[in-house]
Amino acid sequence: MSSITEQLIGEYFATGTLAGLPSGHFIDGKSRPAATGRTMETFDPGTTKVFAQFAAGDAEDVEAAVASSDRAFRDCWRKVAPAERGRILQRAAEGIRANAERLAVVETLDNGKSLAEAQGDIRSAARLFEYYAGAADKLQGETIPLGMDYLSYTSLEPVGVTAHIIPWNYPTSTMVRGIAPALAAGCTVVVKPAEQTPLTALMLAEILRDAGLPDGVCNVLTGTGTAVGAPLVAHAKVRHITFTGSVNTGSLVMQAAARNITSVTLELGGKSPAVMLADCDIDAAVEDVLWAIFSNSGQTCSAGSRLVIERSIHAEFVERLAARTRKLSFGHGLRNPEIGAISSQEQLNKIAGYVDEAKSRGVRVAVGGSRTVDQASGSGWFFQPTILDDVGPLDVVVQEEIFGPVLSVQIADSAEQALELANGTAFGLAAGIYTRDIKKALRLARDIDAGQIYINEYYAGGVETPFGGNKLSGFGREKGLEGLRAYCRVKSVTARI
Predict the structure, then answer these.
(1) DSSP 467
(2) Three-class SS of residue 457?
(3) How far is CA 71 from CA 164, 168, 486, in A?
(4) What distance lies between CA 72 and its chain's CA centroid?
(5) CA 457, CA 55: separation in Å to the nearest integer?
(6) Which of 41, 236, 241, 371 is the most buried (most CB within 10 A)?
(7) What domains can be seen in the chain, in order of their start residue?
(8) pLDDT exceeds 90 at position 180
(9) In this predicted structure, what is the pLDDT of residue 21?
(10) In what order do the strands lie in the sheet with 488-496?
(11) For the residues 71-96, what does the mean pLDDT come to?
């Protein structure tokens, strides 16, 4: 741990906050209070205590931010040479790396995750800017062969003002996953972070400004989904919406967008299976499945929240996985445990409700199953890493997203039944496949209905690989070159010569 990180941690535990945290909206290159002057509080999940305040926006603030981004798009950003846009994004990547330690500490305080996980998220955000910096000057159209008497070609144009509704589980990396390709394409952005985790979005806006991004190109509004998110996605000047969150809210976003014929990218819930065939490498798979579900305390849309496993290895595998789970350390994120806090009291109650109801139905708890606290302080929103064993295919904990450190185990008698169970929910975000037989793996990869498949390593891939879901998990893709498509419109030009 560096001396800077140690100083920040020391300051926080001594004072209960950090000096210089942003508190206002970021509009037109400046911090400003909410139009009403109202504020909200943000809590440290590791202690349950307030550690900062921020602006509580409303429709008046939304109007100011969208007007600013619309102006910046028409008068400035779309006219900036693509290579220069790339240079600005590259400087933003460098700015994130220069401020990585402070960003990671603030992310831990706002979200509750471990410091190591927050540090990884900050590295990912820098890499996203770096990746799309390289793509900015490579967005090019095509010529179309219509014969000697015509010249026909296409060009890619930015769609305009884009809105980005950011979830609380990965505040920094999810924000950058959307805004980096949008900025690379020449769009302007209005960002609405979750009210539970607003601070790093405001810090990133400052980094972008310092990297040379013109005023108004990136605006950040804080507040509730009702007061800020709803008027933002309904605004007529917003031409694309990128939303990450729940299925119910995603449906409302689509309805609001439809009134203005605004395009949307939706990354919604998941109930992703880790399919374990009998010939898998059990030693490697146990460790991999552990982190597929328990990373970020299970608060990951693409988490491997179901283990679909062949019966012949079920008992041994679950026993070994449960033993490994019992050894996991948990506590305040700044003490860098393996498992951090649940991000809010509301989410903790939701997780506990699912598990308590499962126990009342007779579902066997192989390990965990209860709320807990940080043993060093006796406080915080924590839930024990939990494995629910031999769960029926229609059980609620198999069919619904819990969004916490809870793994539901389903037993299959063959690879064919494993496929049926894997596809047996309304979600289709991700799936893991574990086998030594590449033919079996590729057949399952072909037949599982999910947006991304991981073979023998959950979360395999990275910034370069497209990410998104099928069925109730949403549509559209982020990351990779596919992530640029939503922010470009195609214009065709044909001339008789």
Answers:
(1) B
(2) coil
(3) 18, 29, 21
(4) 27
(5) 41
(6) 241
(7) 3-268+475-492 (3.40.605.10), 273-462 (3.40.309.10)
(8) yes
(9) 98
(10) 143-144, 150-158, 488-496
(11) 98
Tens digits of per-residue pLDDT, 419-454? 999 999 999 999 999 999 999 999 999 999 999 999
Check 107, 117, 130, 267 and give the catalytic one: 267
Distance (Å, whole) CA 66 – CA 47: 36
Residue 474 region, left (φ>0) first, then alpha (ψ -120 to 50), else beta? left
DSSP for 32-97? Answer: E--TT--EEEEEETTTTEEEEEEE---HHHHHHHHHHHHHHHHHTGGGS-HHHHHHHHHHHHHHHH
Separation of alpha carbons 14 and 293, rounded Å: 33
Q: What is the DSSP letter of 455?
A: E
Structure tokens at 68: 């600013």
Structure tokens at 136: 């900015």
Our answer to whether residue 346 is catalytic in this structure is no
Q: Of 187, 301, 310, 401, which residue is the catalytic one?
A: 301
Per the annotation, the verdict on 267 as an active-site residue is yes
| H/E element, 100 | helix 100-111
Residue 1 — pLDDT band, cuts 50, 70, 90?
Answer: confident
- Report the distance separating Cα 213 and Cα 207, nearest Å: 9
Q: What is the DSSP string of 359-416?
A: HHTT-EEEE--SEEEETTTTEEEEE--EEEES--TTSHHHHS---SSEEEEEEESSHH
Place of tokens 């069925």: 471
8-state DSSP, 482? G
282-312 burial string, b = 16+ CB within 10 Å, else e?
A: beebbebbbebbbbbbbbbbbbbbbbbbbee
Distance CA 162, CA 191 (A): 8
| Look-up of token digits 């996605």 | 233
Token match 């933003």: residue?
92
Q: Extract the tokens encoding 32.
A: 């400003």
Share of the chain above pLDDT 90, in %: 99
Identify the residue whose tokens are 């409303």.
Answer: 58
Encoded tokens for 451: 């947006």
Tokens read off for 326: 């019992």
